[in-house]
Specification:
This protein has 122 residues and is mostly helical. The chain folds into two domains: 11-76, Winged helix-like DNA-binding domain superfamily/Winged helix DNA-binding domain (Arc Repressor Mutant, subunit A), CATH 1.10.10; 79-121. 62% of the residues lie in helices and 7% in strands. It is built from five helices and two strands; from the N terminus they run H-H-H-E-E-H-H. Strands 1-2 form a two-stranded antiparallel ribbon. A hairpin with a 3-residue loop joins strand 1 (64-67) and strand 2. Helix 1 crosses helix 3. The chain is elongated. The two termini are 28 Å apart.
């Protein structure tokens, strides 16, 4: 995970996205403990409150849970939950605008599918 202090996104959001990515790639398995707030703050040289804020985003989303006195753990079903969330974000961020632009240019759905297939072949 990398924190970019020049990125326009707040650091706590970068922490949350980095943990999400680690869960999706299998670096953190479901029911596995993640690094502590202190470890995040020391590793990335950030305020512990910032790390906590990022982790709390994932707790609120049901991706992480706290075992009192032990630490934070990945929720069972977190991978599926994150994939669904990211698919929706992908649709909203990319597909919707792709379709709008295609309509302006008179590109049919079949032509879009062919273009995407061509992109996968490369």
């Amino acid at each position: 995970m990398k924190i970019d202090f020049e990125d326009e996104r707040p650091i706590f959001q970068q922490i949350a996205l980095g943990i999400e990515d680690a869960i999706l790639t299998g670096a953190f398995e479901e029911e596995e403990q993640i690094p502590s707030i202190t470890e995040f703050s020391v590793t990335y040289k950030i305020n512990p409150a910032t790390a906590l804020k990022g982790i709390n985003l994932l707790v609120d989303a049901g991706v992480l849970y706290k075992k009192r006195g032990v630490g934070m753990f990945v929720t069972e079903g977190a991978v599926m939950k994150l994939k669904e969330k990211r698919k929706e974000e992908f649709y909203d961020s990319y597909v919707r605008s792709l379709i709008e632009e295609a309509k302006k240019l008179g590109i049919s759905g079949d032509e879009i599918i062919a273009m995407v297939a061509r992109g996968y072949e490369r």
